[in-house]
């Protein structure tokens, strides 16, 4: 009799924990959905396993420009900087979404539930290593235009 009561108690306890886990998972999904709907600009730097000097300069100078010019926006989440290694399996979906197959730089604006992306890869390759100040200034201007 005690074994039956103990087993029943254990099953009910585990069931309650499972329901709580499902609720927490639902809360996490809801928070993710809300953050995805939030108005923001994302600076996405994509790269592969091997990178040349120009590829590394794009990441370095883009990150420097964003951190120097947009500290408050980074803190409040209206601007996000992401470095994405496309050689990793977990990043395949985002690489496919933007049709990225090598080092690339994108600005993505989420506004009122709509997404628009601008590919700055050519601009980045033309300027990030050879004229970094021009690159940083141009990137800053583009971001400012999207944040308005």
What top-tier CATH class of the largest domain fits best?
Alpha Beta
What is the topology, as strand order, of the major beta sheet? 2-1-3-4
Low-confidence stretches: 5-25, 28-35
Q: What's the pLDDT, averaged over the residues? A: 83
Q: How would you classify the helix and strand content by structural class?
A: alpha+beta
Task: Provide a count of the helices.
Answer: 6
**Rg, Å, rounded:** 22 Å
Instruction: Provide the helix percentage.
Output: 55-70%
Could you provide a short overview of the structure?
The chain is α+β, with helices and mostly antiparallel strands and 148 residues long. Helices cover 59% and strands 20% of the residues. The chain has two domains: 1-37; 39-147, 3-Layer(aba) Sandwich (Glutaredoxin), CATH 3.40.30.
Q: How do the strands and helices of this protein lay out in sequence?
A:
Blueprint: H1 2-37, E1 40-47, H2 53-69, H3 71-76, E2 79-85, H4 92-97, E3 104-111, E4 114-119, H5 121-127, H6 132-147
Parallel strand pairs: 1-2
Antiparallel strand pairs: 1-3, 3-4
Helix pairs in contact: 2-6
Structure, described:
59% of the residues lie in helices and 20% in strands. The chain is α+β, with helices and mostly antiparallel strands and 148 residues long. It folds into 2 domains: 1-37; 39-147, Glutaredoxin (3-Layer(aba) Sandwich), CATH 3.40.30. The N and C termini lie far apart (70 Å). Mean pLDDT is 83; it is low at 5-25 and 28-35.
